[in-house]
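Appendix B: a complete holo record

For completeness, this appendix reproduces one full record from the ligand-bound portion of the collection. The bound molecule is copper (II) ion. The inputs are the chain sequence and the ligand SMILES; the output is the full three-dimensional arrangement of the complex, encoded as structure tokens. No fields have been trimmed.
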Amino acid sequence: MGAVILFLAVLGLGLLQPVIPSSAGEFRVVIAGGPNEFVPQTHQIRQGDSVAWENQDTVVHLIMMPKPSLKNRETADALEINTDVAPKDGRDNRIDHQFQRPGRYPYFCGRHPDMWGLVVVE
Ligand SMILES: [Cu+2]
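The structure of the chain with copper (II) ion bound, as generated:
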């Protein structure tokens, strides 16, 4: 009987945990050089999925992604991502970001403004 109660208590605690989609996925973007671009440029993902940017270029790229819900996009703290990604074969040549809220997340490179991409979170 004690074991059953313990089992039910564990089940109950489990129900209180945040719901994470069982199919939460990890998507990948390659940062390429010559020409500078994010490949693929667009990802359509689901809430809870992650995107990993991996720099395969020989120079630093700065990923800047405004928060979609904020009006003032000029301040650094209004950014969802504001991170340098080191050149390939070095440390910190990859960043991961999990998207918790639905929305459209356009981003660009702070060092090469013609580099841009888009993450759509459903
Ligand atoms: Cu760049």
